[in-house]
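2024-03-11 09:14:02 INFO queue: dequeued item F-box domain-containing protein, len=391
2024-03-11 09:14:02 INFO validating residues
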Amino acid sequence: MNKQYYSPLELNNSFWRELKNKCPELKDISITGLETVGDDLEGNYSGLFKYQGLESFRLRGHIANAPYMQRLDKLIDNFSTSSPFIHTLSFHLSHCDVNGTADNGIFRKRYPHLRVLALQNFTVEHPEVISDFWSCHPNLEQIELLDVDGPCFEGLSSGTLPKLSVLMASFDDVRTVVPLLGDQLINLTVTSSINAQVPYLLRSVLPDGLASLRSLGIYQLNAGKTVMEDIWEGGHWHEDEHGNVSQVSIALRIDQTYIMSIARGAPNLEELELIGECQESITSALSMFSNLKRLYISGDRYPQGIPNQHFIPTISRRSFLENALEFAHGCATLESITKITDRYYRNIHVRAKIQRNEDGIFSIYERPGCGRMIGLEDLVSVSDDGLMQPH
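2024-03-11 09:14:37 INFO prediction written
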């Protein structure tokens, strides 16, 4: 049985006791929108600490302070002993007063059946601890690391994560780990990238590209505020439409040549998400993809958990539909264009659904939308109206 609560609740000890009594077979707990944890942390959460046999736990909170992180460490410790079959752990903490120290908490525990790990706002102080954690969890299929401070894959050996197929991490961490994974990734999200670092990854770091990649997300830092420094690998890299590579000293945005490089390095993409500032129309470059079905573009506001330096332009309804029609004419394989308004609350996106016949585009209309799906089919399903639902 799955239980999800979306309205404000008093998550005190009596709540957990009642929930346990009425739902003895509960295997999946998801807490979203937690604002505070109260003063009596021990009392509020002692009931949750007594849960046994959980298989999935997700927590999304907006305020986290030092006492809260201490309770979180105890909660994590409880899962490692009382829920040996847990396969999903997700902790997204935004607007933190203090980051959680991951290598003193979750990365020092062992979860033999762990398949999905998602962390936001954690700090890495001992990379060797995390390296040992990866080595002890070969069943990991999905890793999401957002705003995690410190190197997460330093010292990793080839073959350490043989089942990993979905990865979300900063460019620096992706640069470290992706060359070790070969062609096993099918879904990749690169955060905190500047200029053409992602094309540089796919064309220079990986000369053969990632032919197996079917879904790619790119979260650009605002190029207009980027300070060009040599310490950012690939920050000056640029490839023109003819494939000629040069070094440039100007701030670059997502443009035609950017998309062309992506198409050369990941030719089999079916999903492409672009969170960043487009310098000009990218429509003609999209035609280089032979399998692209779903395009995701920046929406009305900052996605939850994405720092303010990520540029999210405002797109009106009319402009969105006009852009969607242009994209649809430029890329014959496109089935939908989704306006991303929030990275994590995926059901509130707006999607332009494209219908075609032998004469071309038959109609284009708005529908509810969700985020990228490839590689996540075992975790969620999409209903006929386009909404994402957990299994």
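2024-03-11 09:14:37 INFO annotate: The mean pLDDT is 78.
2024-03-11 09:14:38 INFO item closed
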